[in-house]
Design goal:
The chain has about 120 residues and is mainly alpha-helical. It contains 4 helices and no strands. Helix 2 crosses helix 4 (about 100-120). The chain is flat.
């Protein structure tokens, strides 16, 4: 058992080192492979419009919502044209931040808490 634990720890140490070296490159590869960045979209632009997302959009700053709508309309236009943006205009992983997900999670927590209170 002790030997197995030592082997596991050694593997984990090497995999952590490999993630530091390969991780960012691997993440960028899959980010670019997804394709939405080639249309100028961010990850949160691709969320399905559930009631929680609609509520989060309502709470969001109107300027950010306008930017999101512009990116979505532009992506739709590019898709209809069967085209993508020039590579220098693609959204980069380092520039893509989750602007909507934290608010959606907050809304879902609030709704779960409200449901819990109504249950009692």
């Amino acid at each position: 058992m002790f030997r197995l634990r030592q082997q596991f720890m050694a593997i984990r140490r090497y995999s952590d080192q490999a993630n530091k070296i390969i991780g960012p490159t691997w993440k960028e590869f899959w980010y670019n492979k997804a394709g939405f960045n080639q249309l100028g979209l961010m990850r949160d632009d691709c969320l399905h419009e559930t009631p929680a997302v609609k509520e989060a959009l309502r709470r969001l700053d109107p300027d950010i919502v306008d930017e999101r709508n512009f990116r979505i309309v532009r992506a739709g236009y590019l898709t209809l044209q069967k085209d993508v943006l020039p590579k220098e205009q693609w959204t980069k992983l380092k520039d893509d931040h989750l602007y909507l997900t934290p608010i959606v999670e907050e809304v879902e927590r609030e709704w779960a808490e409200k449901a819990e209170w109504e249950k009692n």
